[in-house]
Each structure stands twice: as structure tokens, then as C-alpha cells.
């Protein structure tokens, strides 16, 4: 059985993202675990194919709720929605831990996703870095992807005004943040599942 989220991702990507280097970026993604990885270790889309599912969901919310044909660009929306979390590529590993079976009282090995960050470069900035290895981002796209976590980003804590300035100057940054929040906390609620062995 195929991966419908991968198929939808690739269809949207190839329709809207035509910038120089886009084919090479998609080819690189196909050689990583992007299309099979989870989107988180235990929260939203913490399941096989969760990362691509979340990416498609964010794009759909971004496009459906916030696209203004008078001022917005289809390619920018596709780039931001589909690629904002590519920092999670090669980021999660399957491990096991002992969990007590409440019925039998026996300890059993259970699989779970753990973080194994081989390139600790931050979150949004890591996505920007990885994308720009292949294609050039507009400033507005880079800002949107960099700050899509908003106040949940560690570098935004402690009084940084950078995120506020980015949101003031680049409306797509606010739109991506809102789309990510809605996807994560409203539309993807209950999408976590036990890791398959």
C-alpha cells in the first residue's frame, strides 16, 4: 500500500514549486526518512509517515485559511507549508523501553521514538539551512520558516524581539505560525500511535 500523504505532497510540490533547485531538493528528501518519519516523538503525528502528513496538513490550512490572491504567492505558500519542518529529517530514531503490562504485571519491551539530532542547529533555522542547500528562499519565506514556532522556539524566550519584528514585517510568517498551530493542536489531535515494530 502506498503513502497517500507522500503522493499528495509530491503533487502539490511539483505543481507549485518550480524554482531552480526544487527538483534536487525533492530528490534529496526522497533519499532521507522525510516520507516515513514521525512529526514528533509523542505528540502530534507521532507515527510512521507523520512528518509528511503534518507537512501536507499545514500547507492545506495555510492555503485554505490565509491565502490572499491579491498579495500572496502560490509557490511561497507551498514552500513554507510543505518544507517548514524538514529539520526533522533524520531526527527521530526507533528505540525500545521497558513498560509494565497492567494486565499481566510483566515488563515488556515497547518501541518508541527518541530524538537523535546529528546536526543540532536549532529548529526553524535548520529548516532554512537545509532548504537553501538546494534552492534560494525569499526573505519572507526564510522568516516564515525560521519563526514558524513562534514563542515555542527556545530563542524566542527570554524577551527576544526578533519574532515580533518578523511577524510585523512579513505577514506570511504569522500565517504559517497560525497554520502550524491549527494543524498541530486542532486537526492532528489524536494522530499519535504506538511505533510499529
Distance between the termini: 17 Å
Provide the domain count. 1
Oligomer: single chain
Number of strands: 2
H and E string:
HHHHEEHHHH
How helix-rich are the residues, as a percent range?
Answer: 40-55%
**Rg, alpha carbons:** 18 Å
Task: Specify the biggest β-sheet.
Answer: 2 strands, antiparallel
Structural class: mainly alpha
The proportion of strand residues reads 5-15%
Give the overall average pLDDT: 88
Work out the helix count. 8
What is the topology?
Blueprint: H1 4-16, H2 22-30, H3 50-66, H4 74-83, E1 92-100, E2 107-115, H5 124-132, H6 139-146, H7 162-169, H8 171-187
Antiparallel strand pairs: 1-2
How would you characterize this protein structure?
It is globular, with a radius of gyration of 18 Å. It has one domain (4-90, 122-187). The chain has eight helices and two strands. With 197 residues, the protein is mostly helical. It has helices at 4-16, 22-30, 50-66, 74-83, 124-132, 139-146, 162-169, 171-187, and strands at 92-100, 107-115. The mean pLDDT is 88. The chain has a two-stranded antiparallel ribbon.
Observed structural traits:
2 strands; mainly alpha; 8 helices; 197 residues; two-stranded antiparallel sheet
Quick take:
The protein has helices at residues 4-16, 22-30, 50-66, 74-83, 124-132, 139-146, 162-169, 171-187, and strands at residues 92-100, 107-115. It has 197 residues and is mostly helical.
Amino acid at each position: 500500500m502506498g503513502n497517500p500523504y507522500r503522493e499528495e505532497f509530491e503533487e502539490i510540490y511539483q505543481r507549485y514549486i518550480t524554482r531552480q533547485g526544487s527538483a534536487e531538493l525533492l530528490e534529496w528528501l526522497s533519499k532521507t526518512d522525510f516520507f516515513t518519519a514521525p512529526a514528533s516523538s509523542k505528540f502530534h503525528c507521532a507515527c510512521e509517515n507523520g512528518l509528511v502528513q503534518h507537512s501536507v496538513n499545514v500547507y492545506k490550512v495555510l492555503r485554505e485559511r490565509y491565502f490572499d490572491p491579491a498579495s500572496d504567492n502560490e509557490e511561497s505558500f507551498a514552500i513554507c507549508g510543505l518544507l517548514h519542518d524538514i529539520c526533522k529529517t533524520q531526527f527521530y530514531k526507533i528505540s525500545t523501553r521497558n513498560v509494565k503490562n497492567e494486565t499481566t504485571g510483566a515488563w515488556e519491551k515497547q518501541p518508541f521514538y527518541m530524538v537523535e539530532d546529528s546536526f543540532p542547529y536549532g529548529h526553524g533555522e535548520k529548516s532554512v539551512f537545509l532548504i537553501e542547500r538546494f534552492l534560494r528562499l525569499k526573505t519572507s519565506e526564510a522568516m516564515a520558516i525560521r519563526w514558524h514556532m513562534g514563542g515555542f522556539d527556545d530563542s524566542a524566550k527570554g524577551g527576544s524581539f526578533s519574532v515580533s519584528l518578523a511577524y510585523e514585517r512579513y505577514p506570511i510568517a504569522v500565517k504559517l505560525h497560525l497554520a502550524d498551530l491549527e494543524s498541530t493542536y486542532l486537526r492532528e489531535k489524536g494522530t499519535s500511535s504506538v511505533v510499529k515494530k
